[in-house]
Amino acid sequence: MKAVEMTETLLKPLKAGLIGAGIQASLTPAMHMREGAAQGLTYEYELIDLTQRGASPDDLPQLLREAEQRGLCGLNITHPCKQLVIPFLDELSDEARDLGAVNTVVLKAGRRIGHNTDWWGFAEGFRRGLPGVALSHAVQLGAGGAGVATAYAILSMGLTSLTVFDREIERAEALVSSMSPLFPQAHIVAGTDLPSAMRAADGLLHATPTGMAKYPGLPLPAELLEPHHWVAEVVYFPLETELLTEARRRGCKTLDGGGMAVFQAVGAFRLFTGREPDAARMLAHFWALTA
């Protein structure tokens, strides 16, 4: 009987998907399906692209119902739906509740359970890519969805002081207000003087779209980067952003956005399938896709 059940598990297709806008270039389906195949699973992963469908976040309730009706085991959620999906879920993990954002929804037994693997993905990539760097004071650029995840991650890793900058000061202040009660031992402030903050910082977290193909350029004046800084990027299209090129040229240790992209998928795969993914294999596949 056990052998029959195991065979059925391997043969029964698992189906998952990604909801977001303008996501046709996403590497997430390839990473999930390749790892599923390596584990002997029949695993289908689809894109539910709001832009391509002429849909909007207002259609989330219907899209969630359709996913359940078609037997999907889970959904990844990306821009612009990470906050907007929350009212339509039955339960949140502690991290998703703390962050106020969901990037992974498990559909099981008629319930929708929201998780956030973005913060863990960034933290795991940081631990592997920048081991042993100083974590006294960091500057973060960007206080949107990615910025909330990177701030939560770096503070969870023991950072003692974080200065947050955003073009909209209200967003930076909102991030400070949400993180301060969660990490009372840390000094978290919205910044107003970037040159001064960079002089005092060990490193820089970059969590804005600047550096993406459609938003080229540097997110700060190059002369603010000094050799003692580490620089951690969230952008991974392209992997080699202008910020990373300039930072390395100036002697900084750097981390590209690939780790966050891969490890959030590692976390989501674990939640969707109940199996432990091979992180090294998923990393190797990601590098092959982006080579």
What is the fold's blueprint, element by element?
Layout: H1 2-11, E1 14-20, H2 28-38, E2 43-49, H3 50-53, H4 60-69, E3 74-77, E4 91-92, H5 94-99, E5 104-108, E6 111-115, H6 118-129, E7 137-141, H7 145-156, E8 161-165, H8 169-179, E9 187-190, H9 194-200, E10 203-206, E11 230-233, H10 242-249, E12 253-255, H11 258-273, H12 279-290
Parallel strand pairs: 1-2, 1-3, 4-6, 7-8, 7-10, 8-9, 10-11, 11-12
Antiparallel strand pairs: 3-5, 5-6
Helix pairs in contact: 2-12, 6-7, 6-11, 11-12
Q: Could you give the order of the helices and strands? A: HEHEHHEEHEEHEHEHEHEEHEHH
The geometry reads as: globular
- For CATH, the homologous superfamily of the largest domain is named as Leucine Dehydrogenase, chain A, domain 1
For the record, what CATH class of the largest domain applies?
Alpha Beta
Report what the structure shows.
With 291 residues, the protein is of the alpha/beta class. The protein folds into two domains: 2-116 and 262-290, Rossmann fold; 119-256, 3-Layer(aba) Sandwich (Rossmann fold), CATH 3.40.50.720. It is 41% helix and 19% strand. It has twelve helices and twelve strands. It has helices spanning 2-11, 28-38, 50-53, 60-69, 94-99, 118-129, 145-156, 169-179, 194-200, 242-249, 258-273, 279-290, and strands at residues 14-20, 43-49, 74-77, 91-92, 104-108, 111-115, 137-141, 161-165, 187-190, 203-206, 230-233, 253-255. The strands form two sheets. It has a six-stranded mixed sheet with strand order 2-1-3-5-6-4, sandwiched between helices. A six-stranded parallel sheet has the order 9-8-7-10-11-12, with helices on both faces. Helix 6 (118-129) crosses helix 11. The longest helix is centred in the last third of the chain and has 16 residues, at 258-273. The radius of gyration is 19 Å and the shape is globular. The termini are far apart. The mean pLDDT is 94.
